[in-house]
Amino acid sequence: MAFGQIKLSKSFQMDIQHKADRSSGMFFIEEKGETIAEIVYSQTDGQMIIEHTEVDPVLRGKNVGYYLVSRTVEYARENKYTIKPVCVYAKAVIEKHRDMHDVLA
Predict the structure, then answer these.
(1) What Cα–Cα distance (Å) separates residue 97 from each residue in 8, 10, 39, 50, 102?
(2) Rounded distance, CA 21 to CA 69, Å?
(3) Which of 22, 25, 65, 79 is the most buried (most CB within 10 A)?
(4) Is residue 6 classed exposed, middle or buried when 0-12, 13-18 and 19+ CB atoms within 10 A define those classes?
């Protein structure tokens, strides 16, 4: 299973997609052309500012938000960015997981 994929059950798997431009981006999950989960960030001078995380109520309780934060952290590491989480959810996830502290701004 590739890192960008979430396996929620034996028969249910989703791909985390990414799109970005020079100043902002998002990791997201689509189903039938609709975004059902997303984490949105802006970026400047080697820093990603996580602004918002949202997960469709149908997916809540399945750790989808955690996987979005985790993928964002991995992307930051790959690109040598730091992260400033202003989103309350993303901040709580990163603070809870010591293995993510290395990317904090």
Answers:
(1) 21, 26, 18, 16, 10
(2) 19
(3) 65
(4) buried
Each residue's pLDDT tens digit, 63-98: 999 999 999 999 999 999 999 999 999 999 999 999
Vertex 100 angle, CA 64 and 70, to 5°: 20
- Location of structure tokens 């790959």: 78
Q: What is the pLDDT of residues 26-66, one digit of tens each?
A: 999 998 899 999 999 999 999 999 999 999 998 888 899 99
Residue 90 and residue 37: Cα distance in Å, rounded? 13
